[in-house]
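Below is how a single chain appears once it has passed through the pipeline. First comes the sequence as given, then the structure the pipeline wrote out for it. We keep one example in the README because the format questions we get most often are answered faster by looking than by reading.
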Amino acid sequence: MPTTSCARSNRVRPCSRTRATTAVGYHLQTQGTIEPWHQTLKNRILLENYYLPGDLRQQIEAFVDHYNHQRYHKSLQNLTPADVYFGRGQTILKQRERIKRKTIETRRLLQRKSAASLNQQKVQDAPLDQLAICSKTPDDGHRATLDDDDI
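Resulting structure:
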């Protein structure tokens, strides 16, 4: 235990309030958030051999550019870090929401049209001798059909 001066006394002795800190993954108060980034960088960079320091430097710069400007991050609601940093995040999320609503409306409309045309096709394809020609419909709302015995 390190020997430090505690605030409670003037003499030097081991302080019970002093603790060693360790990095915990994804914990904001430690190195935990940068460690996965270093792991990803290392895994990408080690895929190739670099014979000149300039080549390695270029690859690192390309990785950082890709990571910050092109790669979408799940923790940032599928935005890039540059979008969030420069304040474009909310605008992009609102635009995505509008596109999603419009797509859902279009799909529902197409589904309704498809179902309506399918029902109309079934009615047109039914033979006329099986459809009852009467002005009254049964209580259940379905059309009455004639059987061969009724003719």
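The mean pLDDT is 76.

See the next section for the split statistics.
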